[in-house]
Amino acid sequence: MDGVDLAVRCTDKPRGVPCDVCAPDSPMQRFAMEAIDAPLVTPPEGSDSNGTPSVQTAPPAFTPPASASHRMNAAVRQPAPAPAPSPAPMHPTQTVFQDSDGMYDDSISQITPSQAMILDAMERIHRPRATGSESEDPFKFASQPSVPASSRVQLPPPSSLPNDSRTFASRANRANDAAMSRLARTAKLNKYMVVLKGHCPFHFGRSARLVLEADDVDCPDAKAVSMEEYLVFKRMFDFAPYTYCFQCCLPQSKNFNGEQPACHVGLAYKKGTACPFAGFIFKAVYSMWKEEKFRKLLVRDMGEGAKLSTLDELIAWAVQEHAERGRYNNCVEAFLWFCGNIERAKPQFFA
Q1: Residue 251: strand pairing partners
Q2: Is 216 within 8 Å of 200 (Cβ atoms)?
Q3: Among 211-220, 275-284, 330-339, where is mean pLDDT lowest?
Q4: How far apart are CA 145 and CA 12, in angstroms?
Q5: Are the C-beta atoms of 145 and 139 separated by less than 8 Å?
Q6: φ and ψ at 11, to 5 degrees?
C-alpha cells in the first residue's frame, strides 16, 4: 500500500481490508505474504479452454525472511524468481482453478482456513447491498464506510415528526400576522376616537349614544354608576413604558412599531398636559360592563370562559393581553368589540 519512495504512511482508519501498516498480522496480510512467497504459475501452452493449466508446477524454492515487513519490502524491490527454463515433468495432480469458485473446493489443499475466510469476507464486501430480510446480515455495515455508532439515528415515522408550527418560517409568519392584526386594530381605533372625541363616555357605554361631554356631576349616566368602583377599576392598569397611554389606554408606538393611532400622535407627555381622550376607553368599558344586556353579549363573544360577574373578575380579565394573537389588552379589545357592534347596527354612526 505504501511504496518504498512514498514518505506518507497510511494513518486513516481502514474502511475495508486493512493494510500492512494498520494490521500487519491480519488474515489478509498473511494471505498476501503467502501469495508473494508462492505465486501462481503462468498458464503454459496447451492449457484447457478455461485458460487453466492441466498440471501443477512446483513453486520455486525460497528462504523464509525474518519478518513480514521484510518480505513485503523484498517483494517490492525484487521481481519474483522466474521458473526454471525446462522443469522436469511431474505426475499429474489436481487442477488448480483461478476463479473463486474453484478456490472454495474443499479438495484443494492449498487454500488454508484463513484464506477461505478472507475470500468469503471479500465476496460479502463486494456483493450488492442486501434488501428486505437480508438487511439483518452482520456484514451489512462492515462493507460500508466506518461511521461512529452515535451518528446512526433512527428517525421516527413522518406522522410523529413535529409539524411546521415549530419551524422558523412559521413562527415568523405568525409574528408578522399578529403585528398586522394589531395595526388593523389601530386603524379602527383611530376611526372611532376621531368621532368620539369630546363626547360623554358614560352615555356612549350605557346606551351607545353620542352626547357631547357633560360634567360628571350633572351627567345622569355618570350618576348611574359608582365612581369609586370605577376608580378602583382604572387604577388596576399598570402599563410598561411606551406601550399604552396611561390617561386614555390607547396603544403607543413602542420601538416605532406604528401602533399608535394617528389622532394620538404628537401628544407631548409633559407635566400638566392632559390627553384629549383621557379616561374615555376606561369609562366606556366600565359603564358598558355595568349594563347586563351588554355584559352578557361580552361574555358570550369575548369572555373565553370568564364570567365577568364581579368587579374583580372584570379587572383580572381586562388587564390581560394576547399580543401573540394580534390583540391589545382586553380593555381595548372590549372597546373595539363594542364599537364594532354599534357600527354593524348603525353603519353611519362613525361616518
Answers
A1: 244
A2: no
A3: 211-220
A4: 12
A5: no
A6: -115, -5
Q: Distance between CA atoms of 236 and 317, rounded to whole angstroms?
A: 11
What's the pLDDT at 137?
A: 47
In tens, the pLDDT along 224-283 reads 888 999 999 999 999 999 899 999 999 999 888 999 999 998 877 677 788 999 999 999
Distance (Å, rounded) from C-alpha 314 to C-alpha 319? 9
Is the residue at 146 inside a domain? no
All residues at 6 or more sequence positions from 310 whose CB lies less than 8 Å from its CB, including other chains: none
> Are residues 107 and 192 both part of a single domain?
no
Q: What is the pLDDT of residue 24?
A: 77
Grid cell listed for 200: 360623554
The whole-angstrom separation of Cα 161 and Cα 336 is 40
Place of cell 394620538: 264
> Quick one: 113 and 182 in the same domain?
no
- pTM (global) more than 0.85: no
The number of distinct structural domains making up the chain is: 2
Residues 295 and 30: their CA atoms lie apart, in Å, by 94
The pLDDT of residue 201: 93
The domain of 35 spans 18-74+92-117
Using an 8 Å Cβ cutoff, are 75 and 67 in contact? no
Q: CB-based burial of residue 81 (10 Å sphere; 0-12 exposed, 13-18 middle, 19+ buried)?
A: exposed
| 42, part of any domain | yes
**pLDDT attached to residue 84:** 55
In this structure, the answer to whether residues 317 and 209 fall within a common structural domain is: yes
Place of cell 360592563: 289
The contacts of residue 261 (CB under 8 Å, 6+ apart) are: 186, 187, 189, 190, 193, 250, 251
